[in-house]
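Lecture notes, continued. The same structure-token format from the folding unit now serves as the input rather than the output. Read the line below as a description of shape only.
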């Protein structure tokens, strides 16, 4: 077990032969909450996709818990919430969570899902309804719930507060603090500096 969950060294990546990010280097320590901030188009999402192995870097190395990014060993460490989260419209919350956790070889009871939903202000009556009936805020809560319920040691959350009302934002912050207390490492990408200030020990700024 390495002391660093994420090690990024001189990473460059982009599209159609043109780099969007150049020579990015930083690390995230095990058990810390780390923030990434930058203007639109600075390359934050490109960096996250590269960490996940969804796109190749043109140079540099990325290690997730000592394993090469994109490898099976690295992927099973990560739960990822994208900026635009849209669950399969034909699944209800229970089905979506069960399916996602099955990818990690995990199982969970409806009771545990209900407890998490209540802690996030999502009424359990909605959990048996199809995702196509959910509001933006409800879909976001489902995505956050699912990420946390995987139990993965490394959470990558891209704009996790998007679409949430003030109460839900406070509830999510409490859950993220609790996840950190359990030893999970959290990487948050956000435009909202106040959220990062409250949650993060360190931040990186992409210019």
């Amino acid at each position: 077990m390495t002391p660093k969950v994420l090690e990024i060294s001189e990473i460059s990546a982009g599209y159609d032969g043109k780099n969007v990010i150049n020579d990015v280097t930083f690390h995230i320590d095990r058990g810390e909450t780390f923030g990434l901030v930058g203007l639109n188009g600075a390359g934050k999402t490109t960096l996250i996709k590269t960490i996940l192995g969804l796109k190749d870097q043109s140079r540099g190395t990325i290690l997730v818990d000592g394993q090469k990014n994109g490898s099976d060993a690295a992927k099973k460490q990560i739960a990822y919430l994208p900026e635009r989260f849209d669950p399969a419209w034909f699944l209800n919350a229970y089905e979506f969570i069960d399916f996602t956790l099955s990818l990690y070889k995990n199982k969970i009871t409806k009771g545990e899902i209900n407890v998490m939903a209540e802690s996030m202000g999502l009424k359990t009556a909605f959990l048996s309804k199809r995702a196509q009936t959910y509001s933006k805020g409800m879909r976001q809560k489902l995505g956050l719930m699912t990420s946390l319920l995987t139990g993965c040691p490394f959470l990558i959350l891209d704009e996790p507060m998007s679409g949430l009302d003030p109460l839900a934002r406070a509830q999510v912050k409490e859950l993220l603090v609790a996840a950190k207390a359990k030893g999970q490492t959290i990487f948050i990408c956000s435009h909202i500096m106040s959220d990062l200030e409250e949650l993060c020990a360190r931040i990186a700024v992409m210019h």
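Point for the exam: Helices lie at 44-52, 72-75, 93-103, 110-119, 136-149, 166-181, 193-199.
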